[in-house]
Amino acid sequence: MRSYSFRKLDNRIMISLAYAALIIALIPLASILIETVGRGLSAISFSLLFEEIPPLGQPGGGIGPAIQGTLIVVALASIMGIPIGVFSGIYLAEFRQSRLASVARFLNDVLTNVPSIVLGIFGWTLIVVVIGWSVIAGAIALAIMMIPIVTRTTEEAIKLVPITIREAAIALGVPQWKTTLTVVLGSAKKGIATGILLAVARISGETAPLLLTILGNRFWFSGFTQPTAALPLAIFNFSQSPFRTVDLPRAWGASLILIFIVLVINIIVRYATREKYG
Amino acid sequence: MSYKIEIQNLSAWFGSKQVLQDITMKIKENVVTAIIGPSGCGKTTLIRCLNRMHELTPKTKVTGKVLLDGEDIYGENIDPVTVRRRIGMVFQKPNPFPMMSIYDNTAAGLKLNGITDKKRLDKIVEKSLRSAHLWDEVKLELGKSGASLSGGQQQRLCIARALAIEPEVILMDEPTSALDPTAAAKIEQLIRILAEDYTVVIVTHNMQQAARVSDFTAFLYLGKLVEYGSTKDIFENPKSELTEKYITGEFG
Questions:
Q1: In chain A, residues 152-171 whose CB comes closer than 8 Å to chain B
Q2: Are residues A14 and A99 in the same domain?
Q3: What pLDDT shows up at residue A215?
Q4: CATH of domain B3-247
Q5: Which domain holds residue A9?
Q6: Residue A265: predicted pLDDT
Q7: Residue A181 Cα, gap to closest chain B Cα (Å)
Q8: Min Cα–Cα distance to chain B from A6, Å
Q9: Is A216 within 8 Å of A229 (Cβ atoms)?
Q10: Of A79, B31, B116, B171, which is most buried by a Cβ count within 10 Å?
Q11: Are A38 and A95 in a shared domain?
């Protein structure tokens, strides 16, 4: 047995190492936030938020269509992806021993790790080639990206609901499907919401699949079968512009707005699914 | 006095392991019947067969009959859901729905089955909470979380929840084993009163509890019904040597 002071020293060293690791992990995170807020805030103005995207290098205008495009594409992707993901997750959790479930779970895990550019190519060959660059193609590509994330987190959240809660409802003469949809989903909603948030945040910033599906243009939304603008594409284009003084601030402004949108969605979902009794 | 439940040649399995062997017993109406026996003897499985909860566990099997008022609950045209509405259950650990208030917990069975008439719900909630001897303690805070109550109160809330759907039989699976003695005593008192209106079947590992609350006692050992009779006979004049050894504490 080593002496007390020795063990105390050990303890101190380990704690310091843990703190050091934490700080190292926070440095990039904090600097991204500080940098984006610092540079983005000064670029934000009424015209940036609501005006059409100008050609590169041309002063004036804004990124209105990109904000609109991102909101529409992400919303449409969510409408398609969330229900499919949640119900797949319910299936995987409720019928966990079935053969179909284990096959689906494996494929789902594979899909989680498919690079997003591959999903872009998929959307491109499947839809763009047929109907052209379009909002719908982008939304489908992003929905496919969401599904595995939502499925997995829903499954895990449902598995965490104690069996005693489920049995309580079934013993009250509530049919099993209703038990799952009310009591079980009700108890798991926080976990499911977290999964949905992760997925929405993830797809909001995706660039590669959008590049191949919605193309990105400078104009306001003109129909689901038409190309549209989006924030990640606007950030990409502005940051690559040779006219740095004019376009770089716009890229930062767009970045800040993208972060802000994700934050707002986060707050809304958290509020909507808050536990009544913490 | 008539028989509420008749168990005929009931056997049950988990996978290939048989946990109940050919149980036959008749349970009388409006009395408390206790099922005692050492851990793993099949007590819990037996009462879970009475409201068709056993089959919810994957890879289980049940054979034999359980007649409720003469009708086999394992009959071909019987929906287990309707069986469970007639036979309520209280579990070992209090399990109120954590995301629901006291009111909603009590009304849960009705609400989940589609009853929304507020006046009717109010009435049933009050009646059930009164029957569970919880009303006076919670009447001013029905909107509070069910999980905020003490363990004993939570268990009485679970009893109120079971009573609210107006069952005929109440099954209790070691309802006091997670409670302190004072809270347990309250539940025991309540069980006696409930027997005036309901048929109560209680599983317990606590022999004193069986002696205190029950009118009839069944002793189960290794999945077999060893002895079944009036509680007085079982504890004072057991016929089987095994029963005597168990109740005198020689094993178990």
A1: 162, 164-165, 167-171
A2: no
A3: 84
A4: 3.40.50.300
A5: 4-43
A6: 86
A7: 10
A8: 44
A9: yes
A10: B171
A11: no
Give the number of residues written for chain B: 252
Count of domains forming chain A:
2
SS3 B248: coil
**Distance separating alpha carbons of residues B4 and B69, to the nearest angstrom:** 5
Per the domain annotation, does A277 fall within a domain? Answer: no
Residue of B nearest to A185 (CA): B99
Q: Which of A6-15, A124-133, B58-67, B138-147 has the lowest mean pLDDT?
A: A124-133
Residue A26 lies in a domain: yes
Cα–Cα distance, A221 to A228 (Å, whole number): 6
Q: Report the pLDDT value the prediction gives residue B156, as an integer from 0 to 100.
A: 95
If asked whether residues A268 and A161 sit together in one domain, one would say: yes
How many Cα atoms occupy the beta-carbon half-sphere of B107 within 13 Å?
21
- List the domain boundaries for chain B: 3-247
CA dihedral B191, B193, B199, B200 (to 10 degrees): 0
Which amino acid type is present at position B57? T
Interface of B to A at Cβ within 8 Å reads 51, 53, 56, 58, 81-85, 88-89, 91, 93, 95-99, 101, 108-109, 112-113, 144-145, 147-148, 158, 161-162, 165
pLDDT digits (tens, 9 = 90+) for B164-197: 999 999 999 999 998 999 999 999 999 999 999 9
Are A92 and A135 part of one and the same domain?
A: yes
CA distance B235 to chain A (A): 32
DSSP for A164-217?
HHHHHHHHTT--HHHHIIIIIHHHHHHHHHHHHHHHHHHHHT--HHHHTTTB--
Q: Are residues A25 and A67 in the same domain?
A: no
Q: β-strand B216-221 against B32-36: which pairing, if any?
A: parallel
| A134 and A191 belong to one structural domain | yes
Bridge partner residues of B44 (DSSP):
none
pLDDT at A217: 85
pLDDT of residue B242: 92
Q: What pLDDT, on the 0 to 100 scale, is given for residue A171?
A: 95
Q: Mean pLDDT, chain B, as a whole number?
A: 93
A101 touches chain B (CB under 8 A): no
A127 shares a domain with A76: yes
- Write the pLDDT tens digit of every residue in A152-194: 999 999 999 999 999 999 999 999 999 999 999 999 998 999 8
pLDDT digits (tens, 9 = 90+) for A90-103: 999 988 888 999 99
Is the per-residue pLDDT at B1 higher than 60? no
Nearest by Cα to B191 from B133, B112, B111, B235 = B133
- Using 50 as the pLDDT threshold, list the residues of chain A that sit under it: 278
